[in-house]
Amino acid sequence: MTEPMFPRLALIGIGLIGSSIAHAARRAGAAGHIAVHSRTAATLKRAHELHIGDSYHADPADAARDADAVILCIPVGASGAAAKAIAPALKPGAIVSDVGSVKASVVAQVAPHLAQEVHFVPAHPVAGTEYSGPDAGFAELFDNRWTILTPPPGTNPEAVERMHDFWKRLGANVDVMTPEHHDLVLAITSHVPHLIAYNIVGTAAHLESVTQSEVMKFSAGGFRDFTRIASSDPTMWRDVFLNNREAVLEMLGRFTEDLTALQRNIRYGQGEELFDLFTRTRAIRRGIIEAGQETAAADFGRPHGKADGE
Amino acid sequence: MTEPMFPRLALIGIGLIGSSIAHAARRAGAAGHIAVHSRTAATLKRAHELHIGDSYHADPADAARDADAVILCIPVGASGAAAKAIAPALKPGAIVSDVGSVKASVVAQVAPHLAQEVHFVPAHPVAGTEYSGPDAGFAELFDNRWTILTPPPGTNPEAVERMHDFWKRLGANVDVMTPEHHDLVLAITSHVPHLIAYNIVGTAAHLESVTQSEVMKFSAGGFRDFTRIASSDPTMWRDVFLNNREAVLEMLGRFTEDLTALQRNIRYGQGEELFDLFTRTRAIRRGIIEAGQETAAADFGRPHGKADGE
Fold it and tell me: Which terminus has fewer CB within 10 Å in chain A: N or C?
């Protein structure tokens, strides 16, 4: 066991990501005392029942007081209010971080509330499941996934280095980039994919010519994969789109432009163009598997028989 | 062991679906002799090495001769030519079926070639994986999935009943509908989802602001799920879009219309509308899990560590 990096770690929010950080930090011996806050009493109680932390606080300032690191594990839109609430309790030298899927907006919301002697190192672990809440967390969530740090210019380099080490200990690979570049990258690798998944599930639910029961029965042909993505947490995703508007609209514009070209290919029977695209996309898939970000197991043919809710 | 339904079953094409039918028919004792054809010599040789059938034929007519049932397991666009090739060898009373993802076009291509005494029962097993070829098949592929039969008006009811039984024995649930309705249902549950998956992977590959390496590294945020769908067989999918043009264009029009509304919600910061949609889509997911077409396991957090190609 190595010495804990943070004698006291505060987690502001204890859903899927917050609870997974607690489990992973425990596994790595990276934190001494873990102080937990949730603004929802039932969630805080549940986290307590699950023994996710060491102390439980209804007031975020109580959790953050004397902490060596405070991580906001809440929807992006709540970042500013949370930073304001914890700021008076922070000790000099404390590191404040977060796990938001959007970074420029979080920097703009959080930084103004923090004192000079506090170090702000925004972070985004690119990992998750379609489930939410403290029951959903597990220690392996970040293993071999990437966590992106986006320190604003002038951030204390030692603080960045410590968060880098912390995430490595939690099992993640770590990369550093600007908040703006992060928001562009994630717009195409995560935000627009979620948006079109939500969208097609919505479209399918409102057809007159095809019933919802048919959509569900015959979903194994591709649709069910979109429903998985489209069952992610609504509050988190609303905030993502509201807070990464420009990058999402830009990437969405590209997506729509390309889709319009495909639509024309179909309308005019241009099979070669379709075949070319469908062949090129396979190479990207291979690259992702080689990069260790995906298993090669044939997931379309999922385990059968026990598919009913276990 | 029950008696084989078809003393001789011919499979025209022995890729993922053809080889899975062979394995599943064997498991169920539903076929006596299984005659295999592939127009690709290497594929036929590989099927032989894998002992998928009982006899192997370079000429589809040789495979179909004296067969009680002949199933075309080939891309939709090749259906007409295959029907023409086997037609002279078919015995009176033989059943001809297929597995194509589009049905009205297959009916139009195949029916004109078949004699009065031959029964044509088009079928579509809504099951598959992202892999292709005779090595990809397995007996469980159809278990608890749906196979849709689309007999044209006037089809011999006994022949429909036999194909119904055959697919039940292979593990599938069976439904019957018109070819036209099938094509609408699958356009939304399978064809448009594949199209937008192919499209976003193509979009991501051609950005200037985000590198391909970044797209791959940070794909766990949603994008990698689309690459799985977008690595399906290019020939099969080209043919689907060329042969289900009208239904795909109709459903794509609905998708784009809805996406444009979402885009406006984002541009104007209409969070409530986003939240409402993101909440409603969860119900559809629950329905699919309850319908036994999906497992509830948290698949975003896939098995880690061994993700590199095993």
Answer: N
Question: Quick one: A6-177 is in which CATH superfamily?
Answer: NAD(P)-binding Rossmann-like Domain (3.40.50.720)
CATH fourth-level superfamily of A181-290: 6-phosphogluconate dehydrogenase C-terminal like domain (1.10.3660.10)
- Give the model's pLDDT for residue B298: 64
Q: How confident is the model at residue B305 (pLDDT cuts 50, 70, 90)?
A: very low
The answer to whether A128 contacts B301, with C-beta atoms less than 8 Å apart, is yes
Lowest mean pLDDT among A4-13, B34-43, B124-133: B124-133
**Contact status, residue B7 vs residue B33, Cβ threshold 8 Å:** yes
Cβ contacts (< 8 Å) between A194 and chain B: which residues?
Answer: 222
Per CB-CB distance under 8 Å, the chain B contacts of A207 are 188, 251, 254
pLDDT of residue B294: 78
Out of A73-77, A289-293, B122-126, B138-142, which region has the weakest mean confidence (pLDDT)? A289-293
Are A230 and B263 a contacting pair at CB < 8 A?
no
Chain B residues lying within 8 Å of A243, measured CB to CB:
none
A163: left (phi over 0), alpha (psi -120 to 50) or beta: alpha
Beta carbon pairs, A and B, within 8 Å: 397
- At residue A3, the pLDDT reads 76
Question: At B310, is the pLDDT very low, low, confident or very high (cuts 50, 70, 90)?
Answer: very low
Nearest residue, CB atoms, A285 vs list B212, B231, B255: B231
Partner residue opposite B255 with nearest CB, options A148, A200, A212: A200
Q: Which amino acid is at B45?
A: K
At A302 the pLDDT is 58
For residue B261, the distance in angstroms to the closest alpha carbon of chain A comes to 10
B278 three-class SS: helix
Q: What is the residue type of B217?
A: K
**Using CB atoms, which residue from A228, A254, A279 is nearest to B203?**
A254
Give CA–CA dist B203/B62, Å, rounded: 45
8 Å CB contact of B284 and A204: yes
